[in-house]
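Weekly modeling sync, notes
Attendees: S.R. (lead), two postdocs, one rotation student

Agenda item 3: backlog of single-chain predictions. S.R. asked that every request posted to the team notebook include the full sequence so nobody has to chase files. The rotation student volunteered to paste the first one in as an example of the format we agreed on. Action items at the bottom.

Example entry:
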Amino acid sequence: MSTWKGKSRGGLAGYRIFIYLLKNFNLKIAYFILHFVALYFVLFAPKARKPMYYYFNTIIGYGFFKTAYYLYLNNLTFGKVLIDKVVLMAGLTNKFTFSFDGEEHLHDMANNEGGLIIGAHIGNWEIAGHMLDRIKTRVHIVILDAEHRRIKALLDNVMTNKNMNFITINDDMSHLFQIKEALLKNEIVAIHGDRFLPGSKTISCNFLGKNAKFPTGPFYIAMKYKKPVTFVSAVKQPNKHYHLTATQAKLYENSNNIKKRDEVLKQMIVDYVEQLQITLYNHPEQWYNYYYFWETKQLKI
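Predicted structure, as returned to the notebook:
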């Protein structure tokens, strides 16, 4: 099993290009260009293609030709997700539509003691966060990789939703104090639960039929500060439509007993993984972890 290296696909130059295209042309043209970009990545980006081939072929169980198609579809959808994120965060003209399952759970959380929203690199996490402007409280989105600090600086200049704040992971651990401060103010913190850097504490869990490691950190934060947790996803659907899902908020009790605490952490992650599986069964092409996620030896493909 390889691990995440702290960088995500979709760099600063790509965001600048998308912003230029969207300001000077339109969303339809930007989408059209993506067909060529997606094909390029399928053919000439083996570091991303190989683990995704393993995901579609071995984990999901697709045959060779269906896997090849889904590799292309995955890259195409990922590009659209990046563009859509820029459109919404910059307040550019768009015709997106949205539907919600469980939005009332987010309102309940905002109207009471705040809490944690835990998502994954599935669908469009940033749009899920941006759509939280419907929730009447301040939302803090934790950014897990250093590269996105530069992207944050770029988007800060065009963002229109000032009730949203980004918290970037820092080596000095200052982000932990920012998260604590937000939670003590009964605000909402949104964070991923599917990636970790080497050295992080993890728990192994069956995920789509094979074991995979998940970080305990995001889940432990909820236990430590006695805050409820909801698991959220926002998947892209045809015709510029997004579907947001939020589970009913649940408070997981902390314990001074290490064994009991670890059991609760394990249960939290099992509940989280169950939601991930439901989403991926319906939208397997919207999995955006471009490395060997499962506990298995890398294959030569």
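Discussion: group reviewed the output briefly. The mean pLDDT is 84.
Action items: rotation student to repeat for the remaining queue; S.R. to check formatting next week.
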